Amino acid sequence: MIVIYGIKEKLNPIKANLSDVIHGCMQAVLGMPEDKRAHRFVPMDREDFYYPGGRSDAYTVIEINMMAGRKPDTQKELIKALFREIESQLALAPVDVEITIKEQQPYQWGFRGMTGDEENDLKYKVNV
Question: Quick one: signal sequence residues (predicted)?
Answer without folding.
Answer: none
